[in-house]
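Query structure, 206 tokens:
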């Protein structure tokens, strides 16, 4: 007995499925058309936006009290009359030093600041430094390089050591000796000015 083999025709079934799906899609669109109403255009109406309400403080605003500036401190001045000690006050402004012919220590420029000068100071009096006994006994010799600010009157106003080849005792002696130096003041447009100068103090054994 021979068995019959049925062949599934894919072409015919695909056409049937396609038609059925199209009909179902059409039916769904018709139902949606009747279920949902038509959209009507409406004019735009601006909404009233309510802003934040302003809160008015009930407590009064208290202004801060600004303190008064403190008076300048008194500077004591030597006097022969003891009764004038309490009332002896001198001003603390920079014009005080100009009246006495000196520079204001706070107005001395830094050493690296350029100061125009037509004629530099000339050393006119330089006492020899007192050789420290310990350095002399140890045979220490060398130079101490100083940076000196020479004022309008030719006197040193500020001194510090920039380089030293000897001991700290010799450095102190060099600075102490330099305070006694006297210079011809530097000139700019024929007027004395204060400038920085570099100079060595030599310690040598004779």
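Result returned for the query:
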């Amino acid at each position: 007995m021979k068995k019959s083999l049925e062949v599934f025709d894919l072409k015919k079934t695909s056409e049937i499925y396609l038609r059925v799906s199209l009909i179902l899609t059409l039916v769904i669109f018709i139902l949606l058309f009747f279920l949902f109403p038509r959209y009507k255009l409406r004019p735009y109406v601006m909404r009233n936006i309510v802003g934040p309400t302003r809160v008015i403080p009930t407590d009064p605003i208290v202004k801060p009290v600004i303190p008064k500036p403190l008076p300048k401190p008194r500077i004591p001045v030597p006097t022969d009359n003891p009764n004038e000690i309490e009332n002896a006050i001198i001003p603390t402004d920079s014009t005080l030093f100009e009246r006495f012919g000196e520079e204001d220590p706070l107005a001395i420029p830094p050493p690296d600041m350029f100061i125009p000068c037509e004629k530099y100071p000339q050393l006119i009096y330089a006492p020899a430094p007192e050789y420290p006994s310990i350095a002399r006994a140890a045979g220490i010799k060398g130079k101490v390089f100083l940076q000196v600010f020479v004022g309008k009157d030719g006197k040193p106003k500020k001194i510090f050591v920039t380089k030293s080849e000897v001991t700290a005792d010799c450095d102190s002696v060099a600075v102490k000796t330099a305070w006694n130096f006297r210079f011809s003041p530097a000139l700019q447009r024929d007027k004395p000015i204060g400038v920085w100068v570099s100079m060595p103090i030599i310690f040598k054994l004779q």
